[in-house]
Amino acid sequence: MRLRRRVSGAAILATASILSLTTGHANASPAVHYLFSPAHHPLGSAKHLNATAPVTQSFFGSEWAVDQVGSDQQGVAKYRLSSASAAGVKCLDVEGGILTAGTALTTAACDSSSATQNWALVPAQAGGKRTVKLVSTSSGLIAGVRGASTANGAPIELQVDVDQTSQKFYQTVVWPAG
């Protein structure tokens, strides 16, 4: 069964239990879905970014669709990370639009005019493995686990980049299957 419904200018395609965000263009392909796992946990430890408000690391992580939404003046690609649930599609955002270190990340209704929903995925390394840093294109600050905590439910916040593994994320493709 296939559903089509308009949400904030984007089309949601639902096939069985897989939801994917597309741009609404006739020839647009569905976004790739990823799990983002904080790198200060052993790879495969099953803690991932959870699309809650606020965003946390959790055993019950969310799949995130990653769509390129443009690039900045230096040519760095900007992406919007969205997650679909029964509550609808929500995008990774900064709590209250406050662009200072220590501000919690949250999910909010996807808004193409919201600069705080734009992120750069910068390649990095952690323990010799490929990771990414999620960099706010609005502030230059990066996403990181508060206090480098390993606890389930630890919040994700904006941080100054000090190259810690708790500021890097394994990016695992979950859909479409490779």
Instruction: Tell me the distance between the termini.
Output: 23 Å
Structural class: mainly beta
Over all CA atoms, what is the radius of gyration? Answer: 15 Å
Query: What's the order of the H and E elements?
Result: EEEEEEEEEEEEEEE
Number of strands: 15
Query: What count of helical segments does DSSP give?
Result: 0
* Average pLDDT over all residues: 81
Biggest beta sheet attributes: 6 strands, antiparallel
**What ranges have pLDDT less than 50 throughout 5 or more consecutive residues?**
1-28
Question: If you had to describe this structure to a student in words, what would you say it looks like?
Answer:
The protein is mostly beta strands and 178 residues long. The protein has no helices and 15 strands. The protein has strands at 2-7, 10-15, 18-22, 32-38, 48-50, 56-58, 64-71, 77-85, 88-94, 105-109, 119-126, 129-136, 142-145, 156-159, 169-175. The radius of gyration is 15 Å and the shape is globular. The chain starts with a strand and ends with a strand.
